[in-house]
Structures
1.
Amino acid sequence: MKRFSLAVHGGAGTILRANLTPELEAAYHAGLRAALDAGQAVLAKGGAALDAVTAAVCALEDEPLFNAGRGAVFTSDGVQEMDAAVMEGASRRAGAVGGIFGPRNPVLAARAVMERTDHVMLIGPNALKVARAADVPFDEAPYFFTQARWDALQSTLTMRQKGLEDDDPARRHGTVGAVACDMEGNVAAATSTGGMTAKAPGRIGDTPIIGGGTFADNATCAVSGTGHGEVFIRFTAAAEIAARMRHAGQSLEDAARHVVMVDLADHDGTGGLIAVDAKGNITMPFNCEGMYRGTVTEAGNFETFIYR
Ligand code: ASP
């Protein structure tokens, strides 16, 4: 049997264990499982890693529990601005969008940029125009709204006013992503996010930054990150894992672990990432309480996790 592997994440901004009800826990696992099902269906019939990560991320964007697409967090101005990226490891083609609102699945807008333009990243009205031309489905504000994210914005703004902002990851951030290695040994990554709660309008995080929160190269690995985006950008987190593999001969696991547990952790960069190499090895390190995550391989073992 030919090998493939897929990993997904629903963000390192997990709810604190003390606040997790059994119903909510089951809903998070079901959301991750739906994404694994969507990606696995592509890979099991010999489909491309790029299609698998796109399908998995669409499923996560459609699930309001996760901070991407429907259920995205709000900026300090009370609007939603979404970032997304895709990259394929065979060609190192990539597409990204930043600060957009409208497409139900920002990852499809990112893919349209990759496939229909000569550019890697678009923002503003033309990003939406390219998505519309690609028949990406759009929706209005009520579709994307969730009371939980709105309440999180209000409590963040209140804390901020009093100078008491805490760093509860469940309130602050979250993201979704997928990495895959297909039967041909091609890797791909996709990431999508609403960013950080109460972020400044116009703020772009690491998600759409190639080499920051998203990266794919068949010679090394595919990576999708989640966490404090500014630190991921400053430490070029995803590209650093590839560099450690390429230049220092490190394994995927050692390289990813160093970046998450040392580079990011030592600089207030809470979060984690999922990564896969062209042999199908998967690693999913994180330096905070939890990260919604799951994996499936050709053997058909679906596994989903929230905490350590
Ligand atoms: N990395 C995302 C951002 O900074 C947020 C997250 O993953 O929690 O936009």
2.
Amino acid sequence: MTDRSTLLLASDHAAVDLKNIVAAHLRGRGISVEDMGAHGRESVDYPDYAMRVARPISEGRAERGILLCGTGLGMSMVANRFPHVRAALCNDLFSAGMSRRHNNANVLVLGGRVLGDVLACAIVDAWLDTPFEGGRHQTRLDHFNGGV
Ligand code: RB5
């Protein structure tokens, strides 16, 4: 049984190598990670893997996750269909920090065909280490969280 604090991680085939690097990086930081696949480079459909992370977060069974596909676009589109999921596609450091400060993003999405390993891990660190500011930003989240 996975603890709620375990970070859920998934990718499609286009980003499986970067996913494995991110998994090792997270575990190196002492973070508990559940790798929901994909586990090889055989072509798969990204929505199936986005749902493996987004559904448990939407249902309150997990707190946070990271999704990767070629661009990050497909994963973010699917994840954001789930109530209470705030998935942020961040292929730069500034967006990663702001997605936490202002948007309280609970899912980080990365583009495996966009990012190199070092920048991807730096984005992961920025996202993990930046707190939500709350206040007026919570009010703004309430405008749409309350509606789903
Ligand atoms: C797979 O070829 C690619 O379409 C997928 O990884 C992703 O970039 C979709 O948004």
